[in-house]
């Protein structure tokens, strides 16, 4: 880790982790990335546990985008990263306003820049093929990133959206009504900051970014997997169905998981391993 990255981690309140430290979480290599607008982002790299002496360029990498109120060191994200690392290398990071990253959350808008920075870092480490896996808010970010990113160094080669919304401002469920209160009301943002450890931007979207459904047709020819649970308390099944209808059927797949709830917190280990196998298979193909 560079001295500059160590200083940045210390400034964000994150102790640097030495590359050779046996106690490092998941043997992760930690750093601080910079989004295109300058926001610092904490990030970690976990090598493939079964990689052996394989050249890095020959190993795919999964870049994981967490949901709202998630973060690099939250147990649910660490569990997902650990499952993915059984199949390939993994990059995790905290979106702006989350964890020890800087800035404030824009709840899926400028977070596309954060994911692009993480993909760029994965490629700078030598990986030639990259898949993005996003959960909930991170799923909407992964969809928009796959559709809109034009820089070859920041593009993804396959994308998985888990528990992602299809459209903005959805208030059809109680959890989503609570979430809108959190992000749109001053008191709610205080609750988010101190109770959920997530700092939310005080300004409304201007302009409103295109929704996941609007950008879905532009993802092709990148392989797309949409995963959703039939017990998702946030977004009912019309959301994944809408995404799949909008996307190119030649490169899009839908999994409706029986008994699965919402995002990384509820994802069973078997589902995480199947997602990793799909991602690595899509990259190999």
Automatic annotation (TrEMBL):
GO terms for molecular function: hydrolase activity. The keyword Cell membrane does not apply. Residues 1-11 have a biased composition (Basic and acidic residues). Residues 1-23 are annotated as: Disordered. Pfam families: Abhydrolase_1 (PF00561). Keywords: Hydrolase. Residues 60-164 form the AB hydrolase-1 domain. InterPro entries: AB_hydrolase_1, AB_hydrolase_fold. It comes from the Bacteria. This is Alpha/beta fold hydrolase.
């Amino acid at each position: 880790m560079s001295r500059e990255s160590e200083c940045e981690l210390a400034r964000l309140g994150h102790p640097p982790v030495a590359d050779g430290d046996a106690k490092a979480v998941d043997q992760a290599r930690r750093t601080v990335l910079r989004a295109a607008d300058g926001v610092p982002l904490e990030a970690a790299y976990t090598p493939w546990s079964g990689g052996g002496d394989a050249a890095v360029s020959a190993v795919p990498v999964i870049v994981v985008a967490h949901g709202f109120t998630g973060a690099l060191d939250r147990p649910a994200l660490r569990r997902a990263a650990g499952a993915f690392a059984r199949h390939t290398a993994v990059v995790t990071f905290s979106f702006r306003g989350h964890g020890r990253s800087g800035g404030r959350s824009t709840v899926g808008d400028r977070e596309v820049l954060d994911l692009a920075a993480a993909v760029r870092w994965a490629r700078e480490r030598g990986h030639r093929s990259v898949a993005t896996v996003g959960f909930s808010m991170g799923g909407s970010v992964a969809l928009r990133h796959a559709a809109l990113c034009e820089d070859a160094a920041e593009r993804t080669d396959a994308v998985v959206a888990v528990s992602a919304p299809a459209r903005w401002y959805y208030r059809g469920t109680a959890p989503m009504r609570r979430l809108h209160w959190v992000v749109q009301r001053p008191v709610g943002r205080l609750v988010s900051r101190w109770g959920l450890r997530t700092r939310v931007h005080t300004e409304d979207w201007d302009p409103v970014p295109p929704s996941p459904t609007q950008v879905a047709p532009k993802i092709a020819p990148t392989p797309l997997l949409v995963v959703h649970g039939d017990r998702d308390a946030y977004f009912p099944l019309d959301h994944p169905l809408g995404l799949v209808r909008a996307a190119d059927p030649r490169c899009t797949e839908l999994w409706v998981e029986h008994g699965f709830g919402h995002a990384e917190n509820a994802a069973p280990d078997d589902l995480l391993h199947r997602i990793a196998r799909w991602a690595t298979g899509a990259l190999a193909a």
